[in-house]
Design goal:
The structure is a single chain. This protein is an alpha+beta fold. The chain has a single domain (15-93), classed as Glutaredoxin (3-Layer(aba) Sandwich). Helices cover 35% and strands 20% of the residues. It contains 3 helices and 4 strands, in the order βαβαββα. A 4-stranded mixed beta sheet has the order 2-1-3-4, with helices on both faces. β1, α1 and β2 (49-53) form a beta-alpha-beta unit. The two termini are 13 Å apart. The model is unreliable at 1-10 (pLDDT under 50).
Amino acid sequence: MAGMSPLFRRKGPAPQDRLVTLIGKPGCHLCDDAQEVVEKVCGDLGVPWEKRDITEDAGLHALYWEQIPVVLVDGEQHTFWRVNEDRLRAELTGN
């Protein structure tokens, strides 16, 4: 779509209309690191986010216990283990 008028470019949802979900568990240092990144990026962009604990949800535990922390964007897996600030920001802004 390079070279197309901005009028015709398809845009995704605005950042504030997205939802980031951080899936982790207490006592997980990678989860703490991931939360810092999620809080910063979501705070900068005005994106709502939530934290889910795999120890309190058998379904999440079954899906993600080997990958935590896991970050979902709008319910789709974005990343796991380490969260890259620039990559998350690009996903949320469409850049």
